[in-house]
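Let's sit down with a protein and look at its sequence and fold side by side. Go ahead whenever you are ready, and we will take it from there.
>
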Amino acid sequence: MLDIKFIRENADIVKDAVAKKNVEVDIDLLLKLDDERKLIRQELDAKKAEQNRRSNEIVRATGQEREKILEAMKHLKDGMTENEERYQTLLKDWTKLLLAVPNIPSPDTPVGPDESGNIVIRKWGEPTKFDFKPRAHWDIGRDLGIIDTERAAEVSGARFAYIKGDLAMMQFALISFALKILTSRDELTKIAQKAGLDISLTPFVPVIPPVFMRSDIMGRMARLNPIDERYFFEKDDLVLIGSAEHTLGPLHMNEIIEEERLPIRYAGYSTAFRREAGAAGKDTRGILRQHQFDKIELESFSRPEDGYKEQEFFVAIQEHLMQSLGLPYQVVAICTGDMGKPDQRQFDIETWMPGQDTYRETQTSDYMGGYQARRLNTRIKNKAGELTHVHMNDATAFAIGRTLIAIIENYQQADGTIKVPEALVPYVGKTVLGGKAQ
């Protein structure tokens, strides 16, 4: 969330962000409630201070003087219960509005109403060419017996799949390949140097996080809503995560981190769950848009002055991974109307899918600034002993299902087999999926 002091001092900037992000929140009402909240709090604190003073006097008073003090204290209590109830109501309404205020987009974020305002900032590779008509992954996967959505639909319903055989091995190969790079200082050094980034080369700590989290903690991550997208178990007050960053972000909740420990970087592998409530009729074939999918997600905690550079490093890692697999892609700057409420700056990587004749999103990178950290109460203590909120980044290393799609469709062969990207051959143990070649 944003600091209420910042909102008060920069109301026009905040209102502009609210409009550009298509968020409905009344900033004027928030500031009005803030004034009322502070006034009542001051009155309550003054009366409580007077009560404390009178209580100390009672200890020393005797007789008639004591009776006068007790009578005065009765008058002090008049209206305190009502004011306390009014304060709690105001605090609840004020908090709800404050949490609804979106983050301020970065100066270089494109302004636009929706995805139509997104801007392609660079491309790598050319769309794969074939001397035959390329097929979609759902047909190739079905024919090779490595993707089974029909039986999954009978067992679990629509938007679920069995990933089988060689494709399951390819999934484990992607995980091993990514973690080898993310945990290697030498590999990260090469990536940073290629991107021209002067940045800390602290490797990522691999994490297998919980896939359930308490609803209030997901709310503090600003990821609970829209609740229709979540699998929410109200009886247990638990929510299934939609990404590993949901449970990686609170790892240092309510902590003060010494500055010299930063940056702290995590690479979390988990299964993720989304209802896809707003996707009726979209991408119903194959495994592009599933209720259950797997991801390797990056999360970092850095000094405020390193936040933008950290995000650029994350994007460089994403590009390195896709280039290593030989997959054509484009990097897209996400506009104000299409980015998430807690995001300050967002980039997506869209990978060429020849079976669908288009680029599709495979990775995203979100810079939050101090927005999430303020809600999570995660702070830094610098060398001078001063406290400030840590800045947070998250990004997708691999959305496994979508990366498998990109490999299947870009590496398909005329005979119906799939060539294994060279970088993955040592992990898969073969050069072709679905054929005899090894």
